[in-house]
Design goal:
The protein is an alpha/beta fold. Helices cover 36% and strands 14% of the residues. It is built from 11 helices and 9 strands. It has helices at residues 16-30, 58-69, 90-98, 114-121, 137-151, 169-180, 209-213, 237-244, 248-251, 274-277, 284-303, and strands at 47-52, 73-78, 104-109, 125-131, 158-162, 184-188, 204-206, 218-221, 259-261. The strands form 2 sheets. Strands 7-6-5-8-9 form a 5-stranded parallel beta sheet. Helix 2 (58-69) links the parallel strand 1 and strand 2 (73-78). The chain starts with 15 loop residues before the first helix and ends in a 9-residue tail after the last helix.
Length: 312
């Protein structure tokens, strides 16, 4: 069955079949990164533009590695080095980029909806690498891949997402994706960090971390996004760590084979203790590894790789 999506913009627009195809393709792509020569000619001749209007290390590097492992030509542009500092609009910048015939534009932007606007205007495929507090579909997909890889299935799992839910595009995209794949999702955090109406995503809400963790198969801790808070939404980091930080003692309420996740970057000792972040249940670095595989899969699927990955 061919993959028919031109763009990857959010988890709402992906069906269960789309998500399954992306994860299956990523599973096959992952093997390429273990070879002595980590490169296949699948996207030779294709051009991928990485346009990051917002700072990023992990996601940008992951996309860059993914493009290069598929032999695509990739180039990076940041807001500070683009014509946008001279007053050019995002639309004009994107249209000028498209005039050079790229195949895929990967966009991270501070404004929610920016990738959706470009996708409507441009013939090139657009992949959303994070827009404001709205969506981060590639992070959700790599998280789903990692859970499926470790648990065998996502359906029926109890997944707790804890922390700064209000400012987290990861929480929104993951909640939608996990619910679509059959998981029960509970979100928890300080009342000031839980947005009104989050229940409409099909998740349950609690302000008690112990209740959220109890019986959990997977716990995803979130970064406190101070840069998106006009005023701090909690008294102090010390108090946040005491009440909502995940440590070994709190972890005892979860299932024995619980998985600990964090989309990074981690504020050690605040959101999660070093003993848990580096402990036996942590799969934080597996998430990073699978990020490359998922982004290889997405570039391959939207760019229409000329060869089947299994044949390379």
């Amino acid at each position: 069955m061919p993959f028919e999506k031109k763009d990857i913009l959010d988890m709402e627009s992906l069906s269960v079949e789309d998500i399954t195809m992306i994860l299956d393709t990523a599973d096959r792509m992952k093997e390429i990164s273990t070879r002595p020569i980590k490169k296949v000619p699948t996207l030779r001749g294709k051009t991928v533009v990485l346009f990051f209007y917002e700072a990023s290390t992990r996601t940008r590097t992951s996309f860059d590695i993914a493009a290069k492992r598929l032999s695509a030509d990739s180039l990076s542009i940041s807001a500070s080095t683009s014509s946008m500092v001279k007053g050019e609009t995002l639309i004009d910048t994107a249209k000028n980029l498209e005039a050079m015939n790229p195949d895929v534009i990967v966009l991270r932007h501070t404004a929610a909806g920016a990738p959706h606007m470009l996708a409507r205007l441009l013939k090139s495929s657009v992949i959303n690498a994070g827009d404001g507090m709205h969506a981060h579909p590639t992070q959700a997909l790599l998280d789903l891949m990692t859970i499926r890889e470790k648990k065998g299935s996502i359906s029926g799992l109890r997944i707790a997402i804890i922390g700064d839910i209000a400012h987290s595009r990861v929480a929104r995209s993951n909640s939608i994706g996990m619910r679509k794949m059959g998981a029960d999702v509970v979100v928890a955090g300080p009342p000031t960090m839980i947005p009104k109406g989050i229940e409409t995503l099909g998740v349950s809400v609690t302000y008690d971390i112990h209740e959220a963790i109890s019986g959990a198969d997977v716990i995803m801790m979130l970064r406190i996004q101070k840069e998106r808070q006009k005023n701090y939404l909690f008294p102090s980091e010390k108090e946040y760590a005491r009440v909502y930080g995940l440590n070994v003692e709190k972890l005892k309420a979860a299932k024995d084979n619980v998985l600990i996740m964090h989309p990074g970057p981690v504020n050690r000792g605040v959101e999660i203790s070093p003993a848990v972040a580096d402990g036996p249940y942590s799969i934080i670095l597996d998430q990073v590894t699978n990020g490359v595989a998922v982004r290889m899969a997405l570039l391959y699927l939207v760019a229409g790789g000329a060869r089947n990955v299994d044949a390379d």
